[in-house]
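REVIEWER CHECKLIST
Item 1: Sequence provided? yes
Item 2: Single chain? yes
Item 3: Sequence as submitted:
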Amino acid sequence: MHARSAPTLPLRRRLLVAALMLPAVWLLSRLAAGQELPLTPECGDDEPTPRNPEGPFYTPRSPQRSSLREPGLDGTPLLLVGYVLSRGCQPVAGALVELWHCDAHGQYDNVGFRCRGHQYTDRQGRYRFETLVPGLYPGRTRHFHLKVQAPGGPLLTTQLYFPGEPGNARDFLFREALLMRLADGPQDRVGRFDFVVAAGG
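Item 4: Structure as written out by the authors:
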């Protein structure tokens, strides 16, 4: 999110800034425990989630699954959770959420589907991936790649970034508006990001 004066920020952004003042560990531990995600109130003046480049390592036809953790795959466990919302802040059921990223050593699997998968949001618009914290590789800060699409809507290709990473300031693709909220849950680290997309007709 680029710096702007508080009165000009869209309503949902102001509410998210206020939410960041809540104890992050309490909020995200609720998410890790599978409890109901707190939904942002009505936010019809909000902007869609920014796009970010796909990158060279996308592989189509990933498996439908919510867990990207596999035997023998080391790294720090992380839950990635959130909502897919319409421009009117309504949860989008059945939205595609596809995730891919490098492993803990900064390597992408370009032959199989390690650290790759997709799922569809539930009736409340929620998604949840069990995965690992991606590693680093030259030229990039730590990040996830995603594609998000409401049923019948346009496809959003973007990336998510980790707060507090030294490489954020050096990565020319980094956008502050794509930072996750991150905290330690009861078992795993938990990242939260709500996508705002154009709904289908």
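Item 5: Key structural point noted by reviewer: The beta strands are 77-85, 96-100, 116-120, 126-132, 143-149, 156-161, 181-184, 189-192, 195-196.
Item 6: Recommendation: ____
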